[in-house]
Design brief:
By secondary structure, the chain is α/β, with parallel strands linked by helices. The chain is built from ten helices and 13 strands. Strands 1, 2, 3, 4, 8, 9, 10, 11, 12 and 13 form a ten-stranded mixed beta sheet that branches. The chain has a three-stranded antiparallel beta sheet with strand order 5-6-7. A hairpin with a 5-residue loop joins strand 6 (131-133) and strand 7.
Length: 296
Amino acid sequence: LLLALVMALSLAACGNSGTSSASGSGSAAASASASSGKAKFVMLDEPLSTEQYGIAFKKGNTALANTVKGALDKMYADGTFQKITETWGLSDMSCYDQAAVATPAGSEEIPDDTGRKSLTLGFDAEYPPYGYKDDKGNYVGYDIDLAKEVCSRLGWELKLQPIDWDSKDMELNSGNIDVIWNGMTMTGRENDYTWIGPYVDNSIVFVVMSDSGIASKTDLSGKRVITQTGSSALTALTNDPGDGSNKANLDLAATFAALDQTPDYNTAFMNLESGVDDAVAVDIGVANYQLASRNG
């Protein structure tokens, strides 16, 4: 029930204001947590940034992307896509109706593998609800369920390959995996891959302990913030494109006592709970899942 409540209050569907939706979600989560008296973690009102997720293929692998999107389109048309999305509590963040295949101009096209029998999916195995290992030791998640259905319709075997998120590009470019399908941010990476997307609206948010006294981003001054290595949150807090567009986030990060990195968000939340860090910068879908599972 808590998961449904939190997710229902998260981002509005594609086309609405990401900032206002995320702000409402954070405020509602904090309010609900405070009133329940049980919650350990709350989400700050103001998001760090807004972005969108896509499915990433090696640059120039347009043929494979078109084949996968063809299956996804049929799933969307018959309602299977929406049922999977609803099962994982992500309906309010879904925007597959705007998805398209996009390959950067000038890319060398990779020939279509007409004899393909499998699809190797690279994913972070500690990134719920998109991909993770459940209590029974099975890999599960929203993106995994979508990929399973795609492969079933295409007659392919789905091979799940957990990867170090910081090594995702090496894994893709070396051919160890065919696709990065795991809450992969398109925003700012449009020219780095061949994409199917967007299919999920996302915001990057801060999660803190409910008794921390931290109520806004400005309260993070002098605090230790942690995020995942190679994540879009880390990029938002460290990347300077040189045109001033990310100045507000860089100025915010400059006030932190430290910006720590960890390979996975489970460790980040353990650090938060133990007091090693004061806040976690994380995608809202992951934040919602963590709040629902850890707040009880």
